[in-house]
Amino acid sequence: MGKICPKCKHKQDDPRILGCEKCQVAYVDETELVTSFTKDELKIIASFLLRDWRVYVAASVGLLAPTFKSVLPLSRPRLKRVNRPQH
Ligand SMILES: [Zn+2]
């Protein structure tokens, strides 16, 4: 498997040249560019997704909090009835 430039996809002509002279980036294995993303780019995308997930979680908690508040007063009397000592 040859190495190619992750930016311009130019193939490595000379194994002694480790990077693309045009883009000033290091050549990477062709297999690493199967998804057209480099490993570093995937890491960045993954971190963005993680950040988004946290946003989604925070948003869903914010949306669910008022729902729980409206449910709690309804469930409280039922709990009192269950806990009432039976004489
Ligand atoms: Zn290049």
Brief write-up:
The chain is mainly α and 87 residues long. The protein contains one helix and four strands.
Topology (elements, then pairings):
Elements lengths: L2 E2 L14 E2 L4 E2 L1 E2 L9 H45 L4
Antiparallel strand pairs: 1-4, 2-3
This protein binds zinc ion.
Question: How far apart, in Å, are the first and last alpha carbons?
Answer: 83 Å
Note the total helix count: 1
Number of distinct beta strands: 4
Structural class call reads mainly alpha
Biggest sheet, open or closed, and with what strands and sense? 2 strands, antiparallel
Radius of gyration in whole Å, from Cα?
Answer: 28 Å
**String of helices and strands:** EEEEH
Strand order in the largest sheet: 1-4
Any idea what the shape is? rod-shaped
User: How helical, in percent, are the residues?
Assistant: 40-55%
Portion of residues in beta strands equals: 5-15%
Number of structural domains: 2
Hetero groups bound?
zinc ion
Low-pLDDT windows of residues = none
**Average predicted confidence as pLDDT:** 79
Describe this structure in words.
The chain has one helix and four strands. It is mainly alpha-helical. The protein has two domains: 35 residues, no CATH class; 51 residues. The protein has a two-stranded antiparallel sheet with strand order 1-4. A two-stranded antiparallel ribbon has the order 2-3. A hairpin with a 4-residue loop joins strand 2 and strand 3. The longest helix has 45 residues. The radius of gyration is 28 Å and the shape is rod-shaped. The mean pLDDT is 79. The site of zinc ion has 7 residues, from loops.
